[in-house]
C-alpha cells in the first residue's frame, strides 16, 4: 500500500483544515503511505466544485453514499455537522473504509454508542476509525502528556481546564447552525468543552467518572440568518431562539481520584481561542494555553528550594513531539499543523494495522461526559455518573 | 479628635501586617486622625512583649478583656484565629470601641450573624465595625471596581475567580491550626476562597445568591506539630487528621444574573498566591492576578475592530486609587500597602462618622456564601440558596 | 497568464520554506496566477531528486543555468547561500525571468549594487525582482507598519530592535558554512541583524543613514565538519577558525532623525528566535516579538490618563493583514505562513506588472547598512555613513 | 552601640523613600543597632518642618553644616541633587559621620574622585561611606547576583541592560531641575543609565573597562517652570533649553571580556520604570525587569534537552535574599523595600565595622563610565577607555 485515497464529506472551515493536513503532511513527514485527496463530497454542487478546486481535491460528488461503493476510496474523512456523523461513519465502516470523524463524535450518546460499536466491529476486520481531537497533536500538548503520564509531576491532585472564546458576546451575532440544537447538538459545552475534556483526559491518562455542572444560554435570542447555514451569512429579519448553551461550568472526578474544574464559554470577552489546561501534581505541574500554543509551562517540584518556578519551554526543538519534521529550533507552528500531525498519525496507524487514537470509544466517552453534564445541569447541578 | 488609639488583639503574621498599616499610613496619607499603636494583646506574655517591641506597640497585655474598660483605647483590631472573633468583636463594640476584624468574619454563620447584629446596633451609636478584606485596597482591584461598576464593560456576563496556592502540596506540611476545623473553621474555602468571593462581589457590585460546589481534603493526614500553633512548628510524632478542606470548587449565581466559577486551592503546585479574577461583560472585560498585583488588564469592547485586546495598565500612576500618595509613576507597591490603605480608609470613615466598608454585614454575606458552599457539597453539589 | 512556472535554485531549509509557500498560497488566497512548482535545481543529483519528490517539484536539474534557456520557466527563486545570489539573479533577470532572492541580497555591497542595477534595468522591461525579507509578512508586523506609517504613534522618537538566538552558545556547535565568511559573507550581523534592520525600516517607513557599531566573534574556534556544508553534519577532526561574527551591537540614525539601537546575537542563551522590535513615538508605541508572533503590543498615548497601557492585540482577526484568508478569529499562524504571504504578494505584483516589495534596491540598502556597521566596527565603533 | 542617629539632608521624593527605609527596617529585621530619625535638613524651613512631621524626623535644621558639630549625629544621609553631594559628603566624613549618599555619586568625575578619596581616608578611621544604588537590594537582583557570580550560568558572554521610562515623551513636560545640567549633571544617562551600569556590574561581578556610545536630547526645548525646582511645579511663561540628554545608547566591554549593550531612555513611550537586564552565559542566563520586580527568569543550560526554558522564579520565598524577614511565601514586595534593605545592610556594616557596599569607589567607577560615555559621544561614538 503506497497510497491512501481519501474522500472528504463536508467542506466548511474544518474541510479547509483537513485538506491542509492531507496536503502538507507528506511533504514534511516520511509516511508509510501517501494520502491522496481523491474526492470531495457536499450537497451543493457549485460550492463543492469551487472548494475542490481551491483545496486540490481531484473529484467531487453531491452524494456521500457514492463513496460506499467505490473501491478506489480507502478513507472517509467526515467534517459535516454532528447530526450526520453517525450515519456516514457507520455506513463507511461497514463498507470497509477507514474513517476519520471530526469531533464531537455525535450529537447524542446513543449515536456515539452505535458509532463506537461499529468501530469496534470494523477494527476486528482491520478497518479503523478515529475521532479528530486535533489539539492532542499540538506539540506542547503532546509534550505535556509525555511529562505527566511518565510521572513527571507525581500524583495528579487537581486539574483546571477552560476553553474561552468571545464570538457570542455580541448580541447581534446571528443564529447560525452552531447555535441550533438540532444541528449542533450542543453549544459551548459540546463544541469547545469537548476539547477541554479530551485534553484533560489525554494529558493525565485518566478518565472522568462523575461530573457536576451547569449549562446556560446567556444570550437567548439572536437575529435570524437569511439562509440557515454558516456563521457568516447576512443577518435576516426577526430573531430566533438560541437552543444551545453558550456557557458551561462543571466539575469532574477522574478515575485516579483528582478533581477537575471546567469552563467552556463563548462569553469570555477578549478571549479568542483560549483553551487552557493546568494539571497540578504532588511533585510538579504543567500549564498550557492555546493562545500561546508553542509554549509549555512546567513546574518541577524537585528543583532546589529557591530555584523553583514555572519553566516556559518553547516547544520548538527537534527533541519535541512532531517538531523535528518542520523548521529549525525556535520557529513557531500554528493552528493547522495539528491537522498535518493528525493525518500523519492516522496514516501511520492504518499502514501499521493498529488502532489510531483517539478511537471512537474515546470519542464516545467524551460524549458520555457531555451527556452527564447536561443531566447534572437539569438536576440542579448535582454530581452525576458518567456511565 | 486627632488621635485614634488602637489595641490589637493577636500577633501572628496578620499582626505584623496590621502593625505596618497603622505605622505607615499616616506617613503617606493626610489622615483626619493619627492612629496610635497603643496596646498589643496576646496570651503569651513573653512573645507579646517581644512582638510589641519589634512592631512598636507602646504597651502589652495578656488579657483582651482589659481593653473593654480602658477609656484610652478607641479601636480594637482583631487578628486572632476565627474562633475568637465573635466574642471579642461583640464585647468591644458593646464597650464603644470601633472594631477592625480580620477575615473571615467568623467560623460559623451563627457567629457572623451575631457580629453583624452587634455592629448594626453599634453603628446606630456611632461606633463602627469593619472586616479586613484588604485585597479590595490593592490599587488595581480598586480600579477594576471603578471600571466595572461605572459600566465600563457593559452588562456582566461571566465571572471567573480563583485563589491558588501550593503550600499544602507537600504531604509533610504539618497539621497546623489552619488545618483544624475547631480553630480555623474552614480551610482553603474559608481562608482564601473568601477573598475570591469578596473580590468578585466588590468588583461587580453584585452579590451571590445561589451556589453549587464541592469541597475536598486532598491530603487527609498530616504530621502532628509538637505544639499546636503556627505553621512553622517542628513536626512532632505521628499523624493527625486534617479536618478542613484544601480544595474547593464552586459555581455561583449573582443577583444580576451572571454565573461565576470559583476555585480555591492549596494544591495548585507552583502557584504561590494567585488570587485571580476575570469579569466578562457585554462590552469589555477586566482581569487581575495578585501575583502581578500592580497590573490590571482591561479589554475595551468599544475599541475599533482589529485594535482590540487586553490593555495591561500598570496601576502605578497618580490618577489611580491610593497611588498618588506613594511614589512617582511606575514604582511598584507590594502586599503590605493594602494594610496602609485599609488603615487610611478605616480612619477616614471613623473620623467622618460614616460606616467603613466592608461592613460586618458584608462579612456576614461572605460567610453565608461559604456556608452555602459547604451545604451544597454535602448535598451532592446541588445548587443551594445563600439565604 | 494563469500560471507562473517557478524554478527554485537551492534546497536547504529555506527551500522547504519556499516550497511550502508556493504550494499553500494558492489554496488560501485567490491569486491572479497560479504558481507551479516546475523545477528544482541543485548540484547533488540524488539529494535534489529526493527533495523534489518530498516537496512536490515536477522536475530537477543539477545546473541552474539550464533555467536561463527554458521558456517554460517564468520565475527563478534563489535559496542558495549568499555568495551565489548575484550571479544567478543577474543572469535570470537578463534571461527575462522574474526573480525572488533570499536575503541577505548578497555577500558584499558590490554584488548587491550589481543586482540592484540589473533589477532596475529588468523592471523597465517588465521583469521584476524581489528580496525575501519574509518577516514583513507576519500579520502582526504588517499591522505594526500600518499603525506606525499612518501616524498612529506620532513622530518616531526611538527604535529598539534585536534578533536573539542561542544556537552558537554551545562551543561544540560545528564550523558550518554559515560560520565561514567566504560562504556566508557575514554572521549574526548579516543573517539575522539584516532582518532587524529591514523590519525597523519597514515598520517606520524610514531608512538608516548612519550607523555606529561593533561586531565580534565570541567563540573563535569550532570543531570542523567532515563535510563543509550544512549545519547538521557530523563533527570532524580538529578545529577551525570562525570567520564571521556571532554578536553585533550597533546604533543607527534614521533619516527622520530618530535613533535606533540594534542587537544581533547568537550568544543570547535561552533565546531561540527572538526577533523583537519596539518603536516609540511621540504619541504611542508598538512592540513585537517573533517568539510570540501572533501578538502585537500597541500603546496608545491618546488613551485617557489612568487607562493607558500596552494593548496585546491577537493579530488573528479577519480585519488584520493576510489573516482573513486563513482560519476563524483566534487561530494562530506560524513561521511558514510568511512564505505563503510572500508568494501571494509576489504573484500579485507580477500579475499586475508592478514592482514587488522589498525590491533589490531595498535589499541593497540593507546591505549598505551591514557594510557600514562592519566599517564602523573596524574604525573603533565610530559613526559611519551608510552611503 | 545600640542606636544610630541619622541626619538626612534633603527632602524630595528620595527623602520619603529613605525615611521609609529607616523607619521600617528595624521593624522587620533584627538589627545590631537601631537607626533613629534624628534630624531633617533643608533650606526652606516651613517645608522641612512639614516633611519632618509627616515622615517622623525628630528635629529640623536649615543648615546642613550644623550636623558637622553635633556629637549626637552618627550618620549623614544625603538625598540632595547631585551638585551638592561632594561638599556635604566630604565634610561629613571629615567630621566623623558615616555617610549614605544617593546616586549618582556626583555630577562630575572630579567630584566623585574627591569623594572616593575622602571615603578611603575615613574608612581607615572606621568611618564609612556608601552610595545608594538600592536596586541591588531588590531580592530578585540579589538572587541574580548569587546565581551569576557563583558560576550558575557559566562564563558571561553577553549583557543587555536598559532602563526605559517615558515621562519626557510629552513635549509639555516642564524644564525641571533634573533637565538642567548645572543641577542634575546628566540626564537619562546619569540618572537611570547609572542604575543599569551598576546593576550589570553588580550581577556579573565584573567592571566595564571601555565604552562607546551616543547621548542625545530628543526634545530640545521645554516650558519653563515658574520656580526652578521640582518636577511638579506650575509651568511658567516661555521655553528653555534642555541641557541634559533624554536618550543614551552605549556599548561596554567588561573586564572579563564580554560585551554589553545599554539603553537609557526617557523617550520609551509606555515604559514606566523598565529597568531590565539579561546576562547570557555559556551555560545559562538570567533576566530581570523592574516592572515585574518580584520575578527572576533563569535559564539553566544544564537542563535536559527538550526541557530547557526560562524558569520564572517568584522571588518571594524564605530562601531568597531579604525575603524571610517579610511575609509568607508568595507575597509581593514593592519599590520601597529596597530602602529598608539598604538601611539594614548599612547598619549591619557600620555595626560590624566593615565597608558597606556599594562603596564610594564603586560609585566613582560608575561615574567614570558615565564620563567615558559622554566623551565617546563627543568623539563620534568611538570606543573610549573608562580610565
From TrEMBL, chains A, B, C, D:
Domain of life the protein comes from: Bacteria
Transcription regulation recorded as keyword: no
GO molecular function: nucleotide binding; oxidoreductase activity
Domain GFO/IDH/MocA-like oxidoreductase: 142-286
Keywords: NAD, Oxidoreductase
Cross-referenced Gene3D superfamilies: Dihydrodipicolinate Reductase, domain 2, NAD(P)-binding Rossmann-like Domain
Domain Gfo/Idh/MocA-like oxidoreductase N-terminal: 4-124
Pfam families per record: GFO_IDH_MocA (PF01408), GFO_IDH_MocA_C3 (PF22725)
Stated name of the protein: Gfo/Idh/MocA family oxidoreductase
Amino acid at each position: 500500500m503506497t497510497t491512501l485515497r481519501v474522500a472528504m464529506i463536508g467542506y466548511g472551515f474544518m474541510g479547509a483544515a483537513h485538506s491542509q493536513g492531507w496536503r502538507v503532511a507528506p511533504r514534511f513527514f516520511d509516511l508509510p503511505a501517501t494520502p491522496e485527496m481523491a474526492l470531495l463530497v457536499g450537497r451543493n454542487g457549485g460550492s463543492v466544485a469551487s472548494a475542490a478546486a481551491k483545496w486540490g481535491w481531484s473529484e467531487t460528488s453531491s452524494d456521500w453514499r457514492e463513496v460506499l461503493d467505490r473501491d478506489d476510496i480507502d478513507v472517509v474523512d467526515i467534517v459535516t455537522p454532528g447530526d450526520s456523523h453517525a450515519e456516514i461513519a457507520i455506513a463507511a465502516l461497514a463498507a470497509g473504509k477507514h474513517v476519520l470523524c471530526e469531533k464531537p463524535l455525535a450529537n447524542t450518546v446513543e449515536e456515539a454508542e452505535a458509532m463506537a460499536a461499529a468501530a469496534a466491529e470494523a477494527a476486528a476486520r482491520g478497518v479503523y476509525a478515529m475521532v479528530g481531537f486535533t489539539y492532542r497533536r499540538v506539540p506542547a500538548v503532546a509534550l505535556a502528556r509525555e511529562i505527566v503520564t511518565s510521572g513527571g509531576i507525581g500524583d495528579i491532585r487537581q486539574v483546571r481546564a477552560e476553553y474561552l472564546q468571545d464570538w457570542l458576546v455580541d448580541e447581534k451575532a446571528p443564529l447560525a447552525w452552531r447555535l441550533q440544537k438540532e444541528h449542533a447538538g450542543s453549544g459551548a459545552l459540546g463544541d469547545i468543552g469537548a476539547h477541554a475534556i479530551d485534553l484533560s483526559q489525554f494529558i493525565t491518562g485518566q478518565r472522568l467518572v462523575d461530573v457536576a455542572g451547569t449549562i446556560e444560554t446567556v444570550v437567548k435570542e439572536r437575529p435570524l440568518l437569511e439562509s440557515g447555514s454558516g456563521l457568516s451569512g447576512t443577518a435576516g429579519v426577526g430573531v430566533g431562539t438560541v437552543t444551545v448553551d453558550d456557557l458551561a461550568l462543571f466539575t469532574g472526578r477522574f478515575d485516579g481520584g483528582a478533581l477537575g474544574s471546567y469552563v467552556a464559554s463563548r462569553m469570555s470577552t477578549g478571549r479568542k481561542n483560549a483553551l487552557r489546561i493546568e494539571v497540578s501534581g504532588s511533585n510538579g505541574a504543567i500549564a498550557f494555553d492555546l493562545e500561546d500554543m508553542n509554549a509549555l509551562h512546567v513546574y518541577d517540584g524537585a528543583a532546589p528550594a529557591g530555584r523553583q518556578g514555572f519553566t516556559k519551554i518553547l516547544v520548538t526543538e527537534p527533541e519535541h513531539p512532531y517538531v523535528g519534521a518542520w523548521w529549525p529550533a525556535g520557529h513557531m507552528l500554528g493552528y493547522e499543523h495539528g491537522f498535518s500531525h493528525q493525518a500523519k498519525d492516522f496514516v501511520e496507524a492504518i499502514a501499521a494495522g493498529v488502532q489510531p487514537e483517539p478511537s471512537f470509544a474515546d470519542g464516545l466517552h467524551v460524549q458520555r461526559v457531555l451527556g452527564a453534564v447536561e443531566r447534572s445541569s437539569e438536576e440542579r447541578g448535582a454530581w452525576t455518573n458518567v456511565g
